[in-house]
Amino acid sequence: xxxxxxxxxxxxxxxxxxxxxxxxxxxxxxxxxxxxxxxxxxxxxxxxxxxxxxxxxxxxxxxxxxxxxxxxxxxxxxxxxxxxxxxxxxxxxxxxxxxxxxxxxxxxxxxxxxxxxxxxxxxxxxxxxxxxxxxxxxxxxxxxxxxxxxxxxxxxxxxxxxxxxxxxxxxxxxxxxxxxxxxxxxxxxxxxxxxxxxxxxxxxxxxxxxxxxxxxxxxxxxxxxxxxxxxxxxxxxxxxxxxxxxxxxxxxxxxxxxxxxxxxxxxxxxxxxxxxxxxxxxxxxxxxxxxxxxxxxxxxxxxxxxxxxxxxxxxxxxxxxxxxxxxxx
Length: 329
Known about the structure:
By secondary structure, the chain is an alpha/beta fold. The protein has helices spanning 3-8, 13-25, 28-34, 39-53, 69-89, 109-126, 141-147, 196-199, 220-223, 241-245, 256-265, 293-320, and strands at residues 58-61, 64-67, 101-107, 130-136, 152-155, 164-172, 174-179, 204-207, 209-211, 214-216, 231-235, 251-255, 268-272, 279-286. The chain is built from 12 helices and 14 strands. The longest helix has 28 residues, at 293-320.
């Protein structure tokens, strides 16, 4: 290794700052005062700089100190180097309207419909340069969040490893989706909720959820003590419900927010299930993006948007549900 390189390795950013002041003031005394250093300490740093650069930099003359040609040539270069170092560690200001960002989110079509669809609509105005890319939830999702192949995830997952973060977006519950005119609509309880005992007589379509590297589905009625007499179909595609229920007496139990969306887009009816089937739906991310301004802003937008949708939905349900709607079983 060249001798000057050995000395360069001993220098740091503070040495560069001292060098800049020294080249500007041409005075060891003034440099020490500006950097809150004693003159001997400033002289020692000057000696280190001279050895590293291989030039005296500053020489004494009859009319004071003067810079060597090498010192003169270093003045602008040192300033540029310090500016570059400063910008390297400067926190970038995030401006949503001007940003270009691709966000990869793992979820099922439940999260894509209930959370991401309204988010994309909002981003069209707030941050049109953000692109949302949806990926399926799987056994590699948490690993992909760690390595950066994914940025966010939407799921009910509650057992998260170290360095993962989450925020509960809402508490979800199940509801029963059927075609309009289904016999069960005439047999709801006085409060408008489903009668599980009567519902068990009809064929059920079971939705499959990703659990690790496999898909699992549960009979919601079985959890309530009334297992379905027949399972007609098992599927991981939640939003296919309108096609699957058309012209049949089958029924599907699915998250209520997704059920409300599907019931508005097809001739379907949603029957509330007043039972203990609630679960937390979460936004999940890794420590890797915890301090990032852009992803922090996006997480806040998701949460605020979901809370606003929940507030609107609650008011609409209060207006639309009145005792005169309900039939006794």
